[in-house]
Write a structure and sequence with these properties.
CATH topology of one domain: Jelly Rolls
Shape: elongated
Number of strands: 39
Strand content: over 45%
Largest sheet: 7 strands, antiparallel
CATH architecture of one domain: Sandwich
Length: about 500
């Protein structure tokens, strides 16, 4: 005779975990996820389906090849594709030319790699300086685009640019050239400019806590001081660096970047040096190594501050948009929680605030510039999202359980169609798996056998929905799999928690 009914509840938290064995994850982290694709851990709890993206401009940037750089300047978005610059306010792209709104005097951008921008204001007028990794820097001063051909030879070929203590710093190989204070064309020693030699190849620059952090391939240093008279280069790590320039971001009072052993925080690296204690991505090490191995053409990253989230994207010219890969890390009270991202193809990303609005633009090889965190689709395509719990033993892993009812708790604002499946015993081939069931709050939709809505109520402006499903299936361990199956317009929703009701049977 089976035992009386029993109940097991999941509180969904912890994010994606891949560094534990299936048994370990089921026992130690039952609220985590073994699959978390296009769902993200929410700062309010549960797993939230990601938002979509939309074209910023319905027209593609002309020219061929990948978009090499993005910036928002003078209330317009500027994009570099090929060797030309273009700008748009959202209704068509215009090339920066000799006779347009922005005059170029025949100047074109060199090279084929990434183009990086710096906005700065030394005299009451916001200007733009550009480096292409090949020639001398360029400048937008008002409406004129020009190459600064008079700069010293040490500035030629610079790939990185930043403003530190009102000096423009240019990173080129193992050298940092810096301007005189409040100057953008004077790099002479007599005026307060100079050169700082670094022992390693520079891979990125960022200003943090009154210091300039200099990331290199296998080392990290900081520059402290205020001027040429007291600038000092101090080592942080001598055997570990940043392997991908555009993964460096400030978030939550720290710097996150991609090192050879995973994602790291600068504060931990500064404290622990080269030891693995500085890595924050151990729980998804397999996923991260896969991202590194399948991204031969570089990385990009952004921070979504409203979500306390860092996103890193790998770029592979052989991938279609659907195959594009990324990883998100959300900063929660208990630490970083991760998830997989798919179908967001980003080679370059630029983000800023316009008033209270967070703007995030990205682009790749199709010539379009997109806005991230917009709408409920990926530019009209359905967002394919899936979340699976660990295989949970529900007590004794040697006792068979028969599950009769599943209850899921969601926050949803709009129509929703969601597939629900019970998966038993690690999906072994000899285990019978029950058919999937359907959640739907669209009254016009057809409802499959076994699905239904137990109750719906509103709390705090959100629609709280409880789905109660009659199920049948048995096994020693069980996982719940949720997959999006609805229309392209399905709204963002959060899966908060779930409950299983079951009886126990014979011991094996």
């Amino acid at each position: 005779m089976p035992d009386r009914w029993q109940t097991h509840s999941f509180e969904f938290k912890g994010g994606l975990v891949t560094n534990l064995s299936p048994y370990q994850q089921g026992f130690q982290a039952p609220g985590s996820a073994r699959i978390l694709r296009n769902f993200e851990p929410s700062v309010f709890g549960g797993y939230r389906r990601v938002e979509g993206y939309e074209k910023f401009d319905d027209n593609a940037v002309t020219n061929a090849g990948v978009i090499r750089g993005l910036i928002r300047y003078d209330s317009k978005v500027f994009a570099c594709r090929g060797n030309d610059l273009f700008f748009s306010s959202g209704s068509g792209w215009t090339q920066v030319s000799d006779s347009g709104t922005y005059s170029s005097s025949g100047v074109t951008v060199g090279g084929t790699g990434k183009v990086r921008f710096l906005k700065y204001d030394f005299d009451g007028t916001e200007k733009l300086m550009i480096v292409d990794g090949t020639g001398k820097p360029f400048r937008f001063a008002g409406s004129t685009f020009e190459q600064l051909s008079s700069l010293p030879a040490d500035t030629s070929g610079s790939s990185f640019i930043i403003n530190f203590k009102n000096h423009i710093f240019l990173g080129n190989g193992k050298k940092l050239a810096f301007s005189a204070p409040y100057a953008d064309t004077d790099f002479t020693i007599a005026s307060g400019g100079g050169i700082i030699n670094v022992a390693d190849e520079i891979t990125g620059l960022i200003v943090f806590r009154d210091q300039l952090v200099v990331f290199c391939q296998s080392s990290i240093s900081v520059i402290a001081g205020n001027s040429v008279g007291d600038f000092q280069l101090k080592p942080v790590s001598r055997n570990l660096g940043c392997i991908a320039s555009d993964t460096i971001q400030e978030m939550g009072g720290d710097i996150i970047f991609l090192g050879p052993d995973g994602l790291r925080l600068f504060s931990s690296t500064d404290k622990f040096g080269d030891f693995s204690l500085g890595s924050v991505s151990k729980m998804i090490q397999d996923e991260l190594l896969d991202l590194i191995g399948t991204s031969p053409n570089g990385f990009s990253s952004t921070v979504i501050r409203e979500k306390s989230q860092y996103r890193i994207f790998g770029y592979n010219t052989g991938y279609t948009n659907d195959a594009a890969k990324g990883i998100a890390a959300t900063q929660l009270e208990q630490g970083m929680a991760f998830n997989d991202l798919r179908a967001i193809n980003a080679y370059v990303i630029y983000g800023e605030y316009d008033g209270n609005t967070e703007l995030i633009y990205f682009a790749a090889s199709d010539g379009y510039v997109y806005r991230m965190e917009q709408g409920n689709t990926f530019d009209g395509a359905k967002i394919q999202a899936s979340f699976a719990t660990p295989y949970v033993p529900l007590g004794d892993p040697n006792v068979r359980k028969t599950i009769y009812k599943g209850i899921t708790y969601l926050d949803v604002n709009g129509e929703l169609d969601l597939s629900y499946s019970l998966r038993f015993d690690f999906d072994q081939k000899n285990v019978i798996q029950p058919d999937s069931l359907l959640f739907s709050n669209d009254s016009a939709a057809s409802i499959s056998y076994g699905s239904g809505i137990y109750g719906t109520s509103s709390y705090g402006g959100k629609q709280k929905t409880i789905y109660e499903l009659q199920t049948i299936g048995s096994g020693f361990t069980v996982s719940i799999l949720y997959e999006t199956i609805g229309e392209d317009t399905d709204a963002v929703f959060t899966i908060d928690a779930a409950t299983l009701q079951y009886t126990t049977n014979a011991r094996r």
